[in-house]
Amino acid sequence: MRRTYGVLAGIVTCAALTLSACDGDGDGSSRAEAAGLKGRGPITFVTGKDRSGSLHKQIDTWNEGHQDEKVRVIELPDEPADQRRQMIQNATNRSDAYSVLNLDVAWTAEFAANRWLAPLPTVPPPGAPGGSQGSPALKGARLDLSTMLPATIATGRYRGRLYAVPSASDAGMLYYRKDLLEKAGISAPPRTYAEMWAACDRVRKIPEGRGVDCYLTGVDRSESGTVSAVEAIGSAGGAILGPDGRPALNTPAARRGLGFLVDARKDGRMPKAADTLDTEGGRRHFQSGRLLFQRQWAYQYTLAEKDDGSSEVAGRFAVAPLPGPDGPGVAGLGGHDLGISAFARNKLTSLDFIRYLTGEAAQRAALLATSQAPTLAALYDDPEMVRRFPYLPVLRAAIQSARPRPAAARYGDVTAAIQGSVHDAVTGRIPVDRALSGLQGELGPLTAP
Questions:
Q1: How far is the C-alpha of 356 from the C-alpha of 363, rounded, in Å?
Q2: Which residues contact 445 (CB under 8 A, 6 or more apart)?
Q3: Share of the chain above pLDDT 90, in %
Q4: pLDDT level of residue 36 (50, 70, 90 thresholds)
Q5: Which of 44, 309, 339, 425 is surrounded by the fewest CB atoms within 10 Å?
Q6: Which residue has the higher pLDDT, 418 or 24?
Q7: Which of 112, 120, 118 is nearest to 31 (CA)?
Q8: Domain spanning 178-332+405-446 has what CATH number?
């Protein structure tokens, strides 16, 4: 790790940047200014909690080399909804207190639609006649995203323009207790829901499996509920919004998908605590050793492998694709994008900082420290990284086929409606058909052009 962070000190030079700002034919800063990005000086980086310390180390390295352009971290609460709320409050006040925003990928469209983000100049894809900020004079200021996974790049675009750079990706995976499966005579993780329930029944019959909860995915009133709905309905062949961006929930596939979540909770496959467990609560439940199967993000891997006594399952679990009703399921797309506040003062410094934090050395360091899923394709092919993180091939495949959450200018209202309907159905307050028809009605005006 010491050598890795030493590398970070050099990635501010043009040669080491994945997203190059220099092309050898002039001043990239002047070209960025022509694109509307002006100002150099101190900036802020607004993000969730940095529990690993990795981010602060990277920012310390940046600050050592940029005495006049230092970055101050503003850490927001753990709950994504609270993070989003504070960012929106800052934007609606047109405050310059926030410079670079660490956005959940589901928020980028909302922030762009409301003109809370500064558009970014990009290199057009091969064969395209132009691109965002297409003037030849801007060549040196454009962001080249060609080394990133295509699915991650799409999260930063809105109506054909780039508003944020993907810094981390993610997709749902199935964490499972490989030690308990082996003791129950099961040689492979489940590919279908039926196989998962059968495996759970066999594990619960062995002494080591007594009292173990079978399965957990987020069904509380948080963003986890929206993700679980995207995955369950998508795995059944449906979608929350159709290709036209309008709600598409009056379908057999949607009923089958939500029905899976409802039945799992009703039949005791999911613990009663699932009603209130958010992402972090689910992580702690898995690490306590009381859970057999869990839908979770990549960040849990490193935490669950810690041998400092904080995890009861270190060395005893593995990761596989999510199961579905008839075969492998659909994963929800996660991750974070870095955008520049439209009201920030020092946008040129903000752009350079985004390049720094999304470069290969920075993403490699983040992966090593936190198992944060990179957006650069090369890191998924790196033999050393795959050796350290055996789940990378599974994660890459999941990201490439993952379903995004609904992209909407009123995302906060959309996700709140989904969370409420899912929670009410899973807890038995309303039947599945009524939950879906009600949600169909709620989402109609929220997604209208």
A1: 9
A2: none
A3: 81
A4: confident
A5: 309
A6: 418
A7: 120
A8: 3.40.190.10
Which helix (H) or strand (E) element contains residue 281? helix 279-287
Token digits of residue 219: 């069904």
Rounded average pLDDT over 330-348: 97
Edge-to-edge strand list for the sheet holding 213-216: 213-216, 291-296, 173-176, 318-320
What is the predicted pLDDT for the residue at 50? 87
Question: What would the mean pLDDT of 161-184 be, rounded to a whole number?
Answer: 97
The b-or-e profile of 275-309 (16+ CB within 10 A means b, else e) is eebbbbbbbebbbebbbbbbbbbbbbbbbbbeeee
Q: How far apart are the first and last CA of the chain?
A: 49
For 223, the token pair is: 């963003």
Which CATH superfamily hosts domain 2-170+334-401? Periplasmic binding protein-like II (3.40.190.10)
Q: How many CB atoms lie within 10 A of CB 319?
A: 23
- The domains spanning 2-170+334-401 and 178-332+405-446 adopt the same CATH topology: yes
The DSSP secondary structure of 74-127, one letter per residue, reads: EEPPSSHHHHHHHHHHHHHTT-SS--EEEEETTTHHHHHHTT-B--B-BPPPTT
The mean pLDDT value of the chain amounts to 89
Distance CA 389, CA 299 (A): 11
pLDDT tens digits for range 378-401: 999 999 999 999 999 999 999 999
Q: How many CB atoms lie within 10 A of CB 4?
A: 17
164-171 and 333-340 strand pairing: antiparallel
Compute φ and ψ for 38, nearest 5 degrees: -130, 160
Please state the separation of Cα 326 from the chain's center in Å: 26
Q: Where are the domains of the chain?
A: 2-170+334-401, 178-332+405-446
Nearest to 341 by CA among 331, 353, 333, 358: 353
pTM for this model (two decimals) = 0.84
Residue 33 has pLDDT above 60, yes or no: no
Only one residue has tokens 């007594």, namely 210
pLDDT over 50 at 137, yes or no: no
* Residues 394, 52 contacting (CB under 8 angstroms): no
User: C-alpha 261: how far from its chain's center?
Assistant: 22
For residue 248 the two structure tokens come to 């598409």
